Amino acid sequence: MTHPDDVQHQPANLAAEARARLEPHAEEGYLVSLLLTLTTRHLRDEALAQVAPEDFANVAYGGLWGTAQRLQAEGKTINARSLAAAADTHGENAQRTLARFVGIVPDPADYPHSIAEVRRCSGLRKVVQATERINQRVMSAVDGSEALASAHDELAKLDNGTGKQARHSETFRDLLTRLDTELRNPEDFRIIPLPWPELNDRVSGGLHAGRMYVIGARPGEGKSIAAHQAAEHAASLRHPALVFSVEMGGVEVAGRIVANGASIEMSEISRRDLSTSSWRQFEEYRARAQDYPLVINDRPDLTLGYITATCRAVKRQTGLDVVVIDYLQLLKSERNLPREQQVAHVSRSLKQLSRELDCAVVVPAQLNRNSVARGKAMLSDLRESGGIEADADVVMLLAREVTERGEPTGYLNINLAKNRHGRVGDIDLQWRPHYSRIG
């Protein structure tokens, strides 16, 4: 018969056993032994590039590993003496740890398994640690929304879970081979056209994966319309698109997209009073557009962590080519920094997200009031941070054109103020707000 105390201690024992399985002592010891023998120097150098000090469950081993990486970077010899002398911890402690491996000759055949096991366990421990932090933050959260946001923020810091290691360094020969393939097979190179041919001519054919596009404008000047129109056009060409909308609900965003796609007056949709002809146009548009790979997320308290986690999930499940975040200055940063630094951090993180997920990120952004008084917006008018213009690959500044008497001309000026891959300059397109359409 099981004693009640035994039952009480079972979860703790199970947790201890689980943690023990995430601490590959033999494999970590194997890696440390690579540091002490000249015969496996080529394996040592490769391992130092693949495994980080924090990947070790054994803190002493991780400390020695970090010391070896520093010695390697400085071009110094790596052996028991140099490791003990350069170790951050007390030299005697390092010597005692290293003494366990003196005379051990690691078998090269064990190398692949040891590397894989140390990294696998490291990844699992990071998930365990994240869940523990989530638990702590949830217990102090004000409500469920804040708790969920905290959980997303923690999970966003983890690896995307694909297990695929990105290649950050390639030889020039390999890069030329890849470029040759793309030049000979341009149809395989992913370019997502924008709905405005005049603009495509300037931005290398349209949206490119790994690039960030900023649409700057004052309120009501068309930045959201432009972003939604770009997302719908991409989805119509079967490029999966994800729209995050902070200010508007999902149905409102859908209404704007329908107004543009079906050429229905926005006022009819807003009143929920469609004419007979508009109903026919709506049904025709719905029939062709309802299966577009377009997802709209209207969570009002968006954080950078939530966006990152959501994008990674969508990328894994269905693929993702275009991300629209409407708009940049409304995003919450998890960091307790001055507002300008927060916006700069968000901007930089979105640029990194475009690289990580190999997708185009389109971000509407507010302009300062100074742009109105001046008559023409500048890059420096991007509100709350100069980091936005530094991170963006393309910056489009929108403004409705008016006559000298202040009357609207029916045109919208797009000032292509920054373009890393083409010409800058002005483009004039028709402004049709009654259809939520540009062009």
Describe this structure in words.
α8 (144-156) packs across α15. The chain has 18 helices and eleven strands. β8 (394-402) and β9 form a beta hairpin. The chain has 439 residues and is of the alpha/beta class. It has helices at residues 4-21, 25-33, 41-50, 59-73, 80-86, 91-99, 111-139, 144-156, 172-184, 197-200, 223-236, 250-262, 266-271, 276-289, 304-318, 339-357, 370-374, 387-391; strands spanning 191-192, 207-208, 212-217, 241-245, 294-297, 322-326, 360-366, 394-402, 408-419, 425-432, 437-438. It folds into two domains: 4-119, DNAb Helicase, Chain A, CATH 1.10.860; 190-438, 3-Layer(aba) Sandwich (Rossmann fold), CATH 3.40.50.300. The longest helix has 29 residues, at 111-139. The termini are far apart. The radius of gyration is 28 Å and the shape is elongated. The protein has a nine-stranded mixed sheet with strand order 5-4-6-7-3-8-9-10-11, sandwiched between helices.
